[in-house]
């Protein structure tokens, strides 16, 4: 039986009337091959809308064994039901009788199956744009993995492994951020490469939640021809400061009973009446042209629970009422059922909006500034505009209308900033509206960009005085093994214990990033030979195909004369034994 032969249990009149005959014929064809001629005719009539067929099965005798009912799944294959008295339709799939059964079937079991049959659920394709859920380097991190009360880090939790001291320090900072007790501070996460500096920052962003602003910035992003360095840093700072604005609005909320629309024959203005109710009262409202257009745009119909903002006229469709849940035999997967509201129709609600200072800057910087939020073309914003916004936000704060939320600005590879940027950050941290700045650096003694001075971590000494430093240590072999196992699980790859041990050894001798990268390439090689899991041979082949930095440096040193040097000179001398990379 092909997937197109699925038996649709809905009445033919509720689908497409023009296809009713074809559907009934299809039902008969499917049932005839499964249940026999007489039973097929009866079932086709009964499931076509006439339920009187149940009475005709009274008095039939026979036995139905537990293995006699089979579910034909939509994706192919079948599944035996352990209880023959269970639902006739299992997850929208068709329950078929075993062809080996005799035609007479016990009436009570058949009647129970029909009575208990659940309506078929349709899954419509969503036309909404979906986000890119790609597997990134830190997509497995869900938080800092610390205890909420004691802030004590757990060994392996929320995707983070090891680095207990650094995670606890980050948790303390995070707690102070949530309580609003700290702002205008700078924290430096310093450590060797592949020790989890960015992972800790990602864990902090996940733990903060969506209400607290968190901005990630790479140092090289501020060097642009379209915008000055100080403007880029200013925008990053103001993106990391949130404003929680509270306002009260009058809302009409209830279940739509009836919508009447009177359209003029001459094409004049439309008029209409909206009947809306709660569990306690019912009211009729007159609607104008704009409200009718909004209702049509939102596809509001009787039975919908809606919310109307009286100040702006915005209509929000909350869902369908539970009382109307049986109006249709089939509904879309996105249909949501809600309870009919109680009490008064008109209520006052406090609505909270959380925006960043940068968004307010962009909207007020030009006549149609809100469009720049979507295009990203914000350009330079004048300091006068920002001063006016700061004054207005301060007034809102005094009146209790707004609340300042200091967020977090994370600057990765901070040693790539130059001396002018560090000077600006020094001043910005002392401002009244300043976020917490968290930086990461993998440098030891390094030269400060724009100067000839050498300083620890590539940061000026006067800037280091204002910084709290958190250090990360190299991972142990057991921690590397746990991290690689988490990465394999995130990428849905089965790795054998021997292969995982070899990957751990590679991560120790080379680096963790390289070992994590060849998990994917090893998986591709295992798929070529149709294996269910990555074996040690797949890892060895990937190791031979793709060089790690250590072997690449060794290769360059061995054949240095064949590479173009600093002076643009390359030695094209004759090779020996026909090897293009062997120097005679």
Top keywords for this entry?
single chain; 584 residues; Rossmann fold; OB fold (Dihydrolipoamide Acetyltransferase, E2P); Helicase, Ruva Protein, domain 3; eight-stranded mixed beta sheet; five-stranded parallel beta sheet; 21 strands; disordered C terminus; helicase; activator; hydrolase; chromatin regulator; DNA helicase activity
Using the alpha-carbon principal axes, give the shape.
globular
Low-confidence stretches: 1-133, 574-584
Mind describing the biggest β-sheet?
Answer: 8 strands, mixed
Helical content class: 25-40%
- What portion of the residues fall into strands of 2 or more residues? 15-25%
Radius of gyration (CA) equals 34 Å
CATH superfamily of one domain: P-loop containing nucleotide triphosphate hydrolases
Structural class based on helices, strands and sheet pairing: alpha+beta
InterPro entries: AAA+_ATPase, P-loop_NTPase, RuvB-like, RuvB-like_C, RuvBL1/2_DNA/RNA_bd_dom, TIP49_P-loop
Protein name: RuvB-like helicase
GO molecular function: ATP binding; ATP hydrolysis activity; DNA helicase activity
Family: Belongs to the RuvB family.
Can you tell me about this structure?
It is a single chain. The chain has 584 residues and is α+β, with helices and mostly antiparallel strands. Among the domains are: 156-244 and 356-471, 3-Layer(aba) Sandwich (Rossmann fold), CATH 3.40.50.300; 246-326 and 335-352, RuvBL1 DNA/RNA binding domain (OB fold (Dihydrolipoamide Acetyltransferase, E2P)); 477-562, Helicase, Ruva Protein, domain 3 (Orthogonal Bundle). The protein is 34% helix and 20% strand. It contains 17 helices and 21 strands. It has helices spanning 20-35, 37-47, 107-115, 164-179, 197-208, 229-239, 289-298, 357-365, 369-375, 383-399, 419-429, 461-464, 477-490, 497-509, 512-528, 536-545, 549-558, and strands spanning 69-72, 78-80, 89-90, 93-97, 156-157, 160-161, 186-190, 214-218, 241-262, 271-277, 282-287, 304-309, 315-321, 337-338, 346-356, 402-406, 408-412, 436-441, 445-447, 454-456, 467-471. Strands 9, 10, 11, 12, 13, 14, 15 and 16 form an eight-stranded mixed sheet that branches. A five-stranded parallel sheet has the order 8-17-18-7-21, sandwiched between helices. A four-stranded antiparallel sheet has the order 2-1-4-3, covered by helices on one side. Strand 12 and strand 13 (315-321) form a beta hairpin. Helix 13 packs across helix 15 (512-528). The chain is globular, with a radius of gyration of 34 Å. The N and C termini lie far apart (71 Å). Mean pLDDT is 71; it is low at 1-133 and 574-584. InterPro entries: AAA+_ATPase, P-loop_NTPase, RuvB-like, RuvB-like_C, RuvBL1/2_DNA/RNA_bd_dom, TIP49_P-loop. This is RuvB-like helicase.
């Amino acid at each position: 039986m092909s997937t197109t032969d699925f038996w649709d249990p809905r009445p033919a009149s509720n689908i497409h009337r023009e296809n009713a005959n074809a559907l009934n014929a299809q039902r008969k064809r499917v049932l005839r091959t499964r249940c026999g001629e007489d039973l097929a005719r009866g079932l086709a009539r009964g499931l076509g809308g006439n339920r009187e067929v149940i009475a005709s099965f009274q008095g039939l005798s026979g036995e139905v064994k537990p293995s006699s009912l089979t579910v034909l799944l939509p994706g192919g294959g079948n599944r035996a039901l352990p209880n023959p008295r269970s639902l006739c339709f299992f997850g929208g799939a068709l329950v078929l009788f075993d062809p080996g059964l005799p035609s007479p079937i016990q009436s009570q079991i058949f009647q129970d199956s029909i009575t208990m049959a659940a309506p078929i659920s349709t899954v419509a394709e969503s036309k909404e744009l979906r986000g890119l859920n790609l597997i990134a380097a830190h997509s497995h991190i869900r938080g800092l993995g610390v205890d909420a009360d004691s802030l004590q880090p757990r060994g392996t939790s929320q995707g983070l492994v090891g680095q207990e001291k650094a995670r606890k320090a980050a948790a303390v900072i995070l707690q102070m951020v949530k309580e609003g007790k700290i702002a205008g501070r700078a924290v430096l996460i310093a450590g060797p490469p592949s020790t989890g500096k960015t992972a800790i920052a990602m864990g902090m962003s996940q733990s903060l939640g969506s209400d607290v602003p968190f901005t990630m910035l790479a140092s090289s992003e501020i060097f642009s021809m379209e915008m000055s360095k100080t403007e880029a840093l200013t925008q990053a700072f103001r993106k990391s400061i949130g404003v929680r604005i509270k306002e009260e609005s009058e809302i009409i909320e209830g279940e739509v009973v009836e919508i009447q629309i009177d359209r003029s024959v001459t094409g004049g203005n439309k008029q209409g009446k909206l009947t809306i109710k709660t569990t306690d009262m019912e009211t009729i409202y007159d609607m104008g042209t704009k409200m009718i257009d909004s209702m049509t745009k939102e596809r509001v119909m009787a039975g919908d629970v809606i919310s109307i903002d009286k100040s702006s006229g915005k209509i929000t469709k909350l869902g369908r009422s539970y009382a109307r849940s049986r109006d249709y035999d089939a509904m879309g997967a996105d249909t949501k059922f809600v309870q009919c509201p109680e009490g008064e129709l008109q209520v006052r609600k406090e609505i909270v909006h959380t925006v960043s200072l940068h968004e307010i800057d962009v909207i007020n910087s030009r006549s149609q500034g809100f469009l720049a939020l979507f295009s990203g073309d914000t350009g330079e914003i004048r300091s006068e505009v920002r001063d006016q916004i700061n004054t207005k936000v301060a007034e809102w704060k005094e009146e209790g209308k707004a609340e300042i939320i200091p967020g977090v600005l994370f600057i990765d590879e901070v040693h790539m900033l130059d001396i002018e940027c560090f000077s600006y950050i020094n001043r910005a941290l002392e401002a009244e509206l300043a976020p917490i700045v968290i930086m990461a650096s993998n440098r030891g003694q390094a030269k400060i960009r724009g100067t000839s001075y050498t300083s620890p971590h590539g940061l000026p000494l006067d800037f280091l005085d204002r910084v709290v430093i958190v250090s990360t240590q190299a991972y142990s072999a057991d921690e590397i093994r746990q991290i690689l196992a988490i990465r394999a699980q995130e990428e849905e790859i089965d790795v054998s214990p021997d292969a995982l041990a070899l990957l751990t050894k590679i991560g120790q001798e080379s680096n963790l990033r390289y070992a994590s990268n060849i998990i994917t390439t090893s998986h591709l090689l295992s798929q070529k030979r149709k294996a269910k899991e990555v074996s040690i041979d797949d890892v060895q082949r990937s190791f031979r195909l793709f060089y790690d930095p250590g072997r690449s440096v060794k290769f360059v040193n061995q054949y240095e004369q064949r590479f173009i040097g600093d002076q643009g000179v390359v030695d094209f001398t004759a090779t020996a034994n026909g090897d293009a990379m062997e120097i005679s």
